[in-house]
Amino acid sequence: MNRGPVIRKILVYAVYVLLIASFQVTFPRVISFGGQVADLMLVFTVLAGYLFGFKDGAVIGIAMGILRDYYSSPSITGIDGKPVVTCAIGLLVLFLAGTVGASFFTVKMKRNVLFAFAAVAFITLCYKIAGHLAIFLWHRIALGTTYNLTFGAIILHSILPQLLLNMIASVPIILLLKFAGPYRKGVNTALIDEEKGGEQLWLTI
User: Fold this and answer.
1) DSSP letters of 169-201?
2) What is the pLDDT of residue 201?
3) Alpha-carbon gap, residue 130 to 124, rounded angstroms
4) What CATH number has the domain bearing residue 125?
5) Is residue 199 part of a domain?
6) Torsion sign (Cα): 127, 57, 48, 197
7) Is residue 31 within 8 Å of residue 172, measured between CB atoms?
8) pTM confidence score
9) Which residue stretches of the chain have pLDDT < 70?
10) CA dist list (Å): 17 to 24, 59, 157, 193
11) Residues 60, 65, 167, 152: is their CA dihedral positive or negative?
């Protein structure tokens, strides 16, 4: 058995995961706009899943999620009014991002590179909406307070800038994965027979 491709995949993914996670937490404002920063960890995870399949998306999501929780786990206001650091939110979010990205109409679109932007946009939108909804419910139910952002502010100052930044960040990451990624010629050969029933995906049409 030729272990060269496996070793290449592990090494390339390890380097990219560490570099992207370190860059995002060390220089978060390098790619920023409207008070938002490009979520490189999310974008990389989605694209790895979309381009190379469910297993890659799941593993990268777990790895990125662990680093996200370690370096920048989000905090919330506790019931006693003191900030509380959350646990495993990044792991859950990025695991879902990788697996849903791997299943985003990949059979119908045949993992078309241009449609990868749609996958990033869709998951970014779901992530932002779910985050704001979770915070809103926490304030209303647990804390008995009101959420201090209006609907317009959420759209204009949170969701739209994040979508724009993640779309921009997708360009170099796609190029890296396709031309200097974990697979030769940017293709995971294990997915060639996908349409013949090799990999069961959730969102095929």
Assistant:
1) HHHHHHHHHHHSSSSGGG--GGGTTGGGTTS--
2) 45
3) 10
4) 1.10.1760
5) no
6) negative
7) no
8) 0.90
9) 1, 192-205
10) 11, 11, 28, 28
11) positive
